[in-house]
């Protein structure tokens, strides 16, 4: 469904992605692991066109995405839930949702069913939400665009364990609906719980890829080598 | 009675300033773009009003047709030129839009001549309204009522529609709005046209009371920036209160201390900046 082939990307003069290749199949939940600065966020930003890769190819359902506008990749069916959540603080929760809504299975009603806390806080300003609520809102907003694929950038970062559990439940539900997910995450346990396959990124290259079963076997080795700080 | 008269004048003038500044501040908020051609489009609104009124003999047609023409010209300028320079620093915005303003001003002189013109108060709104012993020009009352209506419509558009939600969301992060699948170029062009169209509308409405001349652009641009600074960059409510404040100060001062009317406008701005550096409704 999504396929990156030998993607190179720069921030200014620094070469951040040095030939990333990965793929996500229909309905799959794939994790992308790696230390800070390995290029995980840059990979996501290159997919949606926030950053323009200088070479390589990013295809989605067979169509090339590099060179297309951000809104075009969004309309093609990819929704990025960004690292800092990108909540519109001056808009109410409901406005945050309604500016994103596009026709499809996901409706405001269904979203409120999955995220009761957002219904309770629908008239609050986006800036008044807690970190966990903002993350919920960011994911909910991404879903309301009715994407075929979600890119999640560290959805549990900085959240209390109880909230992390809630987020994981939501991700399980999303996975069951058949939306493909590329999950960038530092929390290994969450990735193991959710993902069908794993990639590990280091210094702009994919250094490990394997199925959930492979990963269960290689886990300690991979962790010590690529993830331990 | 004199003060009541001047307060009403100030409200009308303030609402005109509000329309101009609202356009300026909406454009700045979403596009982070400094539009120094705003005053020139205000002037163009006035001149189109004059020509259309001459042509059709009917002010109402020019009120209906003039501002959309201004908005269309702004849209064309955005699509061909202005969208290419958003990413450049503000100094380049000023350079290009001052250029546009000069082109508009000189073209106006070529077409309509260097001497100002006056536009008759529209039929039906000539004369005065008398309340007890107080009389006030009908057109100026109409101006206050009509601009209030426009202000309400604008509030509704920005606060209650999806378009308005996108404009406000885009003011925080246009990248995030694009990530949600909104065609950001179209949104920018429409917002620019809307903002400049408001200046055109203000130019049309004020033409019958203030007349028109080719150099009215820079004059009103200065005041619009004062209003935006007082109200806070990017704030709609700020543009309303700032506009009314400046209108009232200017109007009342022209009775109390005519020589100092302009000075007091800038004095008000300085006082606001001292107390609230980001304006009444501005954020850091």
Structure notes:
The complex is a heterodimer of chains A (229) and B (284). Chain A is of the alpha/beta class and 229 residues long. Helices cover 38% and strands 27% of the residues of chain A. Chain A has a domain at 1-77 and 153-160 and 184-229: 3-Layer(aba) Sandwich (Rossmann fold). Chain A has a six-stranded mixed sheet, sandwiched between helices. In chain A, strand 9 and strand 10 form a beta hairpin. Chain B has 284 residues and is mostly helical. Helices cover 75% and strands 3% of the residues of chain B. The interface between A and B is medium-sized, with 23 and 19 residues.
Quote the beta fraction of chain A. 25-35%
Low-confidence stretches of chain B: none
The helix/strand order of chain B is HHHHEEHHHHHHH
Shape of chain A: globular
Estimated radius of gyration of chain B: 19 Å
Count, helices of chain B: 11
Instruction: Output the strand order for the largest sheet of chain A.
Output: 6-7-8-3-9-10
Query: What is the level 1 CATH name of the domain at 1-77 and 153-160 and 184-229 in chain A?
Result: Alpha Beta
User: What is the end-to-end distance of chain B?
Assistant: 42 Å
């Amino acid at each position: 469904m999504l396929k990156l082939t030998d993607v190179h990307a720069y921030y200014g003069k620094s070469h951040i992605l040095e030939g990333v290749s990965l793929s996500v199949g229909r309905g799959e939940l794939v994790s992308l692991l790696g230390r800070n600065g390995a290029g995980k966020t840059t990979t996501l930003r290159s997919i949606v066109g926030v950053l323009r890769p200088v070479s390589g190819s990013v295809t989605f359902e067979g169509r090339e995405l590099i060179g297309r506008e951000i809104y075009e990749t969004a309309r093609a069916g990819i929704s990025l839930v960004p690292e800092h959540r990108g909540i519109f603080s001056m808009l109410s929760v409901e406005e945050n949702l309604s500016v994103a809504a596009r026709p499809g299975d996901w409706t405001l009603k269904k979203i409120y069913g999955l995220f009761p806390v957002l219904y309770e806080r629908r008239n609050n300003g986006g800036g008044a939400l807690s970190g966990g609520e903002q993350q919920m809102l960011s994911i909910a907003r991404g879903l309301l665009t009715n994407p075929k694929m979600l890119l999640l950038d560290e959805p549990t970062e900085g959240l209390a364990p109880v909230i992390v559990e809630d987020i994981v439940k939501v991700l399980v539900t999303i996975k069951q609906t058949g939306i493909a997910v590329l999950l960038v995450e530092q929390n290994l346990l969450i990735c193991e719980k959710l993902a069908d396959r794993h990639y590990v990124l280091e210094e702009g290259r994919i250094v490990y890829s394997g199925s959930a079963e492979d990963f269960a076997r290689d886990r300690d080795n991979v962790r010590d080598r690529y993830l331990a700080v | 009675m004199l003060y009541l008269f001047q307060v009403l004048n100030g409200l009308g003038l303030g609402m005109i300033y509000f329309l101009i500044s609202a356009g300026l501040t909406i454009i700045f908020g979403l596009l982070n773009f400094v539009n120094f051609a705003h005053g020139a489009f205000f002037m163009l609104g006035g001149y189109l009003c004059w020509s259309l009124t001459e042509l059709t003999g009917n002010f109402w047609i020019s009120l209906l047709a003039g501002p959309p023409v201004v908005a269309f010209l702004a849209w064309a300028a955005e699509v061909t030129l202005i969208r290419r320079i958003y990413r450049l620093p503000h100094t380049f915005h000023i350079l290009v839009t001052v250029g546009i303003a000069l082109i508009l001003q000189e073209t106006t002189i070529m077409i309509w001549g260097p001497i100002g013109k006056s536009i008759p108060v529209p039929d039906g709104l000539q004369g005065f309204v008398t309340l007890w012993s107080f009389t006030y020009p009908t057109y100026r009352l109409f101006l206050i009522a009509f601009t209030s209506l426009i202000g309400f419509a604008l509030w509704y558009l920005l606060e209650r529609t999806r378009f308005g939600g996108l404009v406000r969301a885009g003011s925080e992060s246009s990248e995030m709005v694009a990530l949600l699948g909104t065609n950001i170029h179209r949104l920018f062009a429409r917002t620019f046209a809307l903002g400049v169209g408001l200046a055109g509308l203000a130019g049309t409405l004020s033409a019958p009371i203030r007349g028109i001349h080719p150099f009215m652009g820079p004059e009103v641009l200065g005041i619009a920036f004062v209003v935006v600074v007082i109200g806070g960059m990017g704030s709609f409510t700020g543009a309303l209160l700032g506009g009314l404040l400046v209108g009232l100060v200017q109007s009342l001062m022209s009775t109390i201390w005519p020589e100092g009317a302009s000075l007091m406008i800038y004095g008000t701005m300085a006082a606001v900046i001292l107390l609230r550096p980001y304006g009444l409704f501005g954020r850091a």
